């Protein structure tokens, strides 16, 4: 039996938004409960059809450290997170994808990094795939027209020799082992200072999915906060479990969100020809990759 949590000492609340995550959701919960750090867990199911949340509720519904919320419709990721974050009294909020498996000490390391840096509002871990490779977007720069082009074209690989070619992604092999300030980290696992999140009025619910994370980090930077990449904190991300049930919709939303992010933050300071090229590039990429998305799923 899992030991009950002592709530007077818990200052972290974990928010997991589930949509058809399948069996990996159980692995996610099991890893959290084995963590060195105590955390209240709130699992929100966004109208899944695979029974994944119900199965977990049958296993852990008696556990006082886990709360289950079942939405009748899919509210979207940001709205589901915000509904819990707005009522939370925890000092730290762990926003965690249901397909992420935390190492035992990962949460302790993320929390320690934030406690050591009063201007850090958010910390992200080293994110590995299930083969042990570092996933893309583990540490990254804010996207902009030039950086995004360099990344999409592959020319970013020349950035190690020619700074003008740097893209969005950062080669984490060039970083040390200590916590380091980065413009952005992976949104799959984020430990957030709740007071900073509240200061910015939480996640932008205008994104159906994708880019809520980079939007938050961009706004944090604009308000004097920064993010930390904590390489000694490790999480395994079994990416794509939730996307398999609706690949075309997910693919569309990724590109819609990219266009929305650009319009919200950067289009106003960009010339009309460049704006047109950016929007054309986003939707051209959508069309080119769409057949591959359908084949892979």
Written description of the protein model:
The chain has a single domain, classed as Alpha-Beta Complex (Spore Coat Polysaccharide Biosynthesis Protein SpsA, Chain A), CATH 3.90.550.10. Strands 1, 2, 3, 4, 5, 6, 8, 10 and 11 form a 9-stranded mixed β-sheet that branches. Strands 7-9 form a two-stranded antiparallel ribbon. It has helices at 24-33, 52-60, 77-85, 106-115, 145-153, 194-199, 212-222, 247-265, 272-296; strands at 12-18, 40-46, 66-71, 92-96, 100-102, 120-128, 139-140, 180-182, 184-185, 189-193, 226-237. With 297 residues, the chain is α/β, with parallel strands linked by helices. Helix 8 runs antiparallel to helix 9 (272-296). It has 9 helices and 11 strands. Mean pLDDT is 90; it is low at 1-8. It is 36% helix and 21% strand.
Give the helix/strand class.
Answer: alpha/beta
The CATH superfamily turns out to be Spore Coat Polysaccharide Biosynthesis Protein SpsA, Chain A
Order of helices and strands: EHEHEHEEHEEHEEEHHEHH
CATH fold descriptor:
Spore Coat Polysaccharide Biosynthesis Protein SpsA, Chain A
Largest sheet: 9 strands, mixed
How many structurally independent domains? 1
As a percent range, the share of strand residues is 15-25%
């Amino acid at each position: 039996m899992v030991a009950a949590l002592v709530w007077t000492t818990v200052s972290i609340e974990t928010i997991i938004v589930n949509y058809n995550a399948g069996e990996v959701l159980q692995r996610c919960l099991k890893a959290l409960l084995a963590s060195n750090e105590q955390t209240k867990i709130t699992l929100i199911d966004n109208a899944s059809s695979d029974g994944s949340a119900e199965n977990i509720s049958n296993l852990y519904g008696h556990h006082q450290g886990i709360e289950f919320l079942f939405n009748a419709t899919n509210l979207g990721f940001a709205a589901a997170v915000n509904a819990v974050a707005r009522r939370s009294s925890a000092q730290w909020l762990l926003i965690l994808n249901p397909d992420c498996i935390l190492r035992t000490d990962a949460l302790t390391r993320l929390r320690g990094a934030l406690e050591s840096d009063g201007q850090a509002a958010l910390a992200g871990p080293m994110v590995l795939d299930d083969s042990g490779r570092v996933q893309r977007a583990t540490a990254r720069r804010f996207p902009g027209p030039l950086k995004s082009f360099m990344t999409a074209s592959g020319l970013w690989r020349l950035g190690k020799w020619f700074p003008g070619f740097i893209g969005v992604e950062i080669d984490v092999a060039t970083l040390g082992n200590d916590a380091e300030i980065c413009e952005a980290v992976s949104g799959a696992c984020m430990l957030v200072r709740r007071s900073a999140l509240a200061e910015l009025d939480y996640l932008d619910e205008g994104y159906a999915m994708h880019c809520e994370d980079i939007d938050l980090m961009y706004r944090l930077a604009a308000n004097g906060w920064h993010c930390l990449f904590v390489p000694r904190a490790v999480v395994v991300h079994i990416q794509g479990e939730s996307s398999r049930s609706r690949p075309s919709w997910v693919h569309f939303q990724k590109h819609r969100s990219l266009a929305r992010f650009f319009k919200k933050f950067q289009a106003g300071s960009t010339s009309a020809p460049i704006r047109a090229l950016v929007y054309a590039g986003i939707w051209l990429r959508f069309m080119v990759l769409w057949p591959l998305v359908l084949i892979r799923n």
